[in-house]
Amino acid sequence: FSFHINCGSSKSVTIGSRTFDGDDGVNGGATFFVSSQGNWALSSTGTIMDNNDDTDVYTVSNSSILSMPNPELYMVARISPLSLKYYGLCLWNGPYTVKLYFAEIEITDDKNCSSLGNRIFDVYIQ
Question: Domain Malectin: where (predicted)?
Fold first, then answer.
């Protein structure tokens, strides 16, 4: 059993035999979303009240050229002001291999790391 998620993207991407499902249908401060195949879901909580933007779209897009394999996986990212959780649904007990792929798409040539906040990851697998 496996599933792959292209977090924040409006489209699915197939690389080799793996299809990374897009999760672009997710918007709003408090959201629960189940994938079209029903094998994964996500929940997102929180809203940014002081950004003068009422769209509640929590994605960030890459504006630089990436020189890594499969750059289409790193063009958009999902963000959340409080909590963002992805769930694998109907998984059997047993060992699994979990791979997380990240790329820096916020800091571009016109920015440096001191201009942005920290990235905090709390990965919990139960």
Answer: 2-126
Tell me: the pLDDT tens digits for 45-93? 877 666 666 666 778 888 777 788 888 888 888 887 788 889 999 999 9
Query: What DSSP line would sit under 40-107, residue for residue?
Result: EEEEEE---TTSS--S---EEE--S---SSSGGGGSEEE--SSEEEEEE-SPPSS-----------S-
DSSP, collapsed to helix, strand or coil, labels residue 14 as strand
Amino acid at 37: Q
- The domain ranges of the chain are 4-115
Question: In angstroms, how far is CA 22 from the centroid of its own chain?
Answer: 9
- Would you call 7 exposed, middle or buried from its count of C-beta atoms within 10 A (0-12, 13-18, 19+)? buried
Report yes or no on whether pTM surpasses 0.85: no
At 115, is the secondary structure helix, strand, or coil? helix
